[in-house]
Amino acid sequence: MTTAAPQYATAAHNLSQSARAEAEYANVAQPSTFIPRGDTIVTLNYFRPPEDGSAPYNYVEKQADGHQRNFGDFDIQLPIRDIRGRENEFSLDKDAFQVASGLPESAEKDFVDDASIKEKYYPEVEKLILDNVEGSNRVFIFDHTIRRSNPNAPRAPVTRVHIDQTKKSATARVHHHLPDEAEKLLQGRYRLINVWRPLNGPVQGSPLAFASSSSLKDEDLIPIEHRYPDRTGETAGIRYNEGQKWHYLSGMRNDERLFLECFDSEATKPGTKVLGGRVPHTAFQDPRTPKNAVGRESIEVRALVFGP
Ligand code: OGA
Ligand code: FE
């Protein structure tokens, strides 16, 4: 394990003797196409509040003085369960994540040109949402992020447990993108949902972990100021709590989509069947992934979803 990345080393260090032997076996003896599957233990990186009790913030753009954020983080070893084969047990209303599979190939082939992605891929995502998100009758897609694992990629997988938006920032998004209709739209149900897919699946390295919304307490959600050069958004860090139940979908394929719900206005209503409507998520390094595995490439599309 001497050449392993620090995360691998930490993860392996805390595993039992036999699990460690297995992990090393996977690294050495499996062919490079090996895809880790099944329940396991991984290291996830969680939020640590600022020492001085001040409100947490981070800057989106790289800062010249290197001061990027005022909060810390810590690694923790956690069990994670593979939902492959029982994807249908999970739903947006209960878990704030949901899987769709068997999607046809996209009209977008390259995923390099933003205009082309908007023209070809966005309409497919809009239809997918209308077909799969119960009650939805209108979708407004506001952006997307492409992630590639190579060191020069503008955006890489995120190895930090987070939720992209809070009630405050989701509501601000509606005002920002649909100013004329916002007041009316905000009286009905509004959700903010990311639609995630790999571009070079099946995913071997840096898979995505997500914790069921039903296992997350409101008090463990910590708003973080998300400072752009011209405005401030809000994301959420997660306080660790051993009740949080983590999952992943092993070897996620190009014909599969993962809905990651960040906010659902329905979750705040008394007597609701919606259990929180927000899913903590993060990329992780699976200690069983071979060292020469293919780096993950993915796209997530972010949408405001309206409907009763
Ligand atoms: C997301 C997200 C991280 C990743 O889709 O919201 O945080 O590594 N993705 O793909
Ligand atoms: Fe995210």
TrEMBL record:
One of its GO terms (molecular function) is oxidoreductase activity. InterPro entries: AsaB-like. Belongs to the asaB hydroxylase/desaturase family. This is 7alpha-cephem-methoxylase P8 chain related protein. It comes from Cadophora malorum.
